[in-house]
Amino acid sequence: GTLKLMVSSGASRGAIAVGKWLGGWLAFLTPIALATALWLVLVRPVFGVALRGDDWGRLLAYLALAAVYLSVCFTVAVAISALFHRAGTALVAALFTWVVVVFVIPSFGVLAARQVVHVKPLALVSAERNRIFGSEMMKGFEERRAGRTGPVFQEHWGEMHRQRDLLSDRVAGELGMLARTSALLVRVSPAGAFDGLATRILSTSVADESRLKRDVRRYKNAILPEVFQQRSDGAEVEYPTFTASRASLGEVLASGRADLAGDW
Question: Is the pLDDT of residue 261 over 50?
Fold first, then answer.
């Protein structure tokens, strides 16, 4: 009855469609905006998390991206409801579309990427790390039994870390290639594209994890001589503060624009 009344009042079909979309969009996003504002008010006193500098820019970029993603989802839902006369049929079609876009396409992209990119299983990586440790320690014991003096185990301990770092770099390269390949395949899905860009904005992507691990290894290799020195003479050593680097928001947005340009 409401639709017939609006048409009889002289409103165009386009104005009715835009009005219904805008009203539904506002009703859809308003609760999310209120919940986000409440979280921002409580995040520091309740959770003890303080947002600094670049964090605010990342948060705003993520909220803007989430608003665009939800708008796309809502627009698709409105379009599906306009295509079918019965509400039940539209609901089934919308549910089917949601399952395909959110679950099927991303899962297929990951499975297809695993067929193309070979990643060494975690069990084999752990076995290799244990083999390196055992090999270097056995060499140290053999040299001790042969009568060698000096920092024998320190040398083999350092060699063990060097070989483990090389192994970690190879595995990180394989995981990075797998992540890039799967992201390329799932980009046709709005859910896959949103997930890829959102993880980069929030510094939770595979590339950010690899960057963090490289920083940890760099810090470990920098303080390793001081650790050996402390063990040998018992002197207290003050280690430098660990700092992790991450891609700036500008770099993330630039990579996102490059991805969009590549798609088009």
Answer: no
Reported as type and span, the H/E element at residue 206 is helix 206-233
Nearest one of 70, 67, 73, 62 to 101, comparing CA atoms: 73
How far apart CA 125 and CA 91 sit, in angstroms, is 47
* CA dihedral sign of residues 114, 117, 118, 122: negative
**What is the distance between the alpha carbons of residues 178 and 66, in angstroms, rounded to a whole number?**
25
Hey, what are 95's tokens?
């549910």
Supply 215's token pair. Answer: 């920083």
Encode pLDDT of 157-199 as tens digits.
Answer: 888 888 988 998 898 888 888 888 888 888 888 888 888 888 8
Distance CA 67, CA 38 (A): 17
- Least Cα distance to 250 among 66, 69, 53, 68 occurs for 53
- Contact between 184 and 117 under an 8 Å Cβ cutoff? The reply is no
Check the CA dihedral 78-83-88-89 and report its sign. negative
d(CA 45, CA 58): 21
- Give the model's confidence band at 264: pLDDT under 50 very low, under 70 low, under 90 confident, else very high: very low
Please give the full DSSP string across 94-149, using - where no structure is assigned. HHHHHHIIIIIHHHHHHHHHHHHS----HHHHHHHHHHHHHHHHHHHHHHHHTT--
pTM of the model: 0.73
Decide: residue 257, CB within 10 A, 0-12 exposed, 13-18 middle, 19+ buried: exposed
CA distance 193 to 186: 7
How many Å apart are CA 253 and CA 47, to the nearest integer?
Answer: 28
DSSP 57: H
Tokens of 162: 């060097």
* Identity of the residue numbered 62: Y
What the block records as the tokens of 103 is 């679950």
